[in-house]
Amino acid sequence: MPDVDFVSLTAYAKQFSGLTPEYEGLLQEIGPQVKPLLMEVTESFYGVLQSIDKTKPFIDGKVESLKKTHLHWMETMFTGPYDEKYTAWMYKVGDVHVKVRLPVEFMAGGITIIGNTLHPIIAGLCGTDHGRCVKLASAINAMLGFSLMVMQESYQASSLAAELEKFLAITGMSRTLFDNLARAYK
Amino acid sequence: MRADLLNSILNELNGTSADIEASGVISTDGLMMASQLPAGMDEDRVGAMSAAMLSLGDRTAQELARGHLEQVLVKGNKGYVLMTHAGSEAVVTVLAKPNAKLGLIFLDVKRAAEQISKLV
């Protein structure tokens, strides 16, 4: 993985996604209530992925182990902390997606599935307090957007790195020569 | 010291034919080691581009079963670029006029490349 300033990336992604300290607090506050219901989200997530022809081959034979990781991630979304360590984790996820050659749309698609499942759960917990419901929905959107943004950032970086490695292998150029070439045309 | 020796080889090479307009010795990583280039020509670009072309030439010769690469020749309407291995660590690049007598230049460059390969 390249050198990444995760502190800056965390701040940037939070600014973009709107994950404010207030929303972070809300997510943590509702965490104990949501936690017992998260398995439902994970089950639904993999249920949808198994029903899509293009995604199914990527998860066949490893769904149970993937569910454990997914559930752990879901729980972390409601416990925090939402710091550079979390960002580094999401960054790693994007990198792994490239290494296992998952198409880029799987990340945005996956986040959408999670959002679609989480929102009704949250609505059920809010009761008639619509104001709180709207805030919680926004907090979840911000959290999911934050995570997606970091994953896509590393996906892009890793994709470019993988393409460059392929280019260097095909042309026989050393990395140093490529860097010198790039520097000459800065 | 080494740069002086390389420059003197390039000087001599440029003097062998009026058709040679410029020359340089470049590491296989694309860094210019010595050069006799016209003013305004970017050393870094000439160096990196020459090494990249030679690297691609190496791969092409290998992939298309042409054996060990000796040189890469680029012809444009304003002249030639000739890139030749000088040992395994360096490249000699020569820029020549459009009507240059290539046979003679090939011989002179080959001789210069042999001398350079002993220095790098």
Helices and strands, with pairings:
The complex is a heterodimer of chains A (186) and B (120).
Chain A: H1 6-17, H2 21-34, H3 38-51, H4 56-59, H5 63-77, H6 84-99, H7 105-126, H8 130-171, H9 175-184
Helix pairs in contact in A: 1-6, 1-8, 2-8, 3-5, 3-7, 6-8, 7-8
Chain B: H1 2-16, E1 20-27, E2 32-36, H2 43-63, E3 71-76, E4 79-85, E5 90-96, H3 102-117
Antiparallel strand pairs in B: 1-2, 1-5, 3-4, 4-5
Helix pairs in contact in B: 1-3
In short:
Chain A is an all-alpha fold and 186 residues long.
Task: Write structural notes for this entry.
The complex is a heterodimer of chains A (186) and B (120). Chain A has helices at residues 6-17, 21-34, 38-51, 56-59, 63-77, 84-99, 105-126, 130-171, 175-184. With 186 residues, chain A is mainly alpha-helical. In chain A, helix 1 crosses helix 6 (84-99), helix 1 (6-17) crosses helix 8 (130-171) and helix 7 (105-126) runs antiparallel to helix 8 (130-171). Chain A has one domain (10-153): Globins (Globin-like), CATH 1.10.490. With 120 residues, chain B is α+β, with helices and mostly antiparallel strands. Chain B has 3 helices and 5 strands. Chain B has helices at 2-16, 43-63, 102-117, and strands spanning 20-27, 32-36, 71-76, 79-85, 90-96. A 5-stranded antiparallel sheet of chain B has the order 2-1-5-4-3, with helices on both faces. In chain B, strand 1 (20-27) and strand 2 (32-36) form a beta hairpin. In chain B, helix 1 (2-16) packs antiparallel against helix 3. The radius of gyration of chain B is 13 Å and the shape is globular. The model of chain B has no long low-confidence stretch (mean pLDDT 94). Chain A binds chain B through residues 170-174, 176-178, 180-181, 183-185, and chain B through 28-31, 42, 44-45, 47-49, 51-52, 55-56, 58-59, 62.
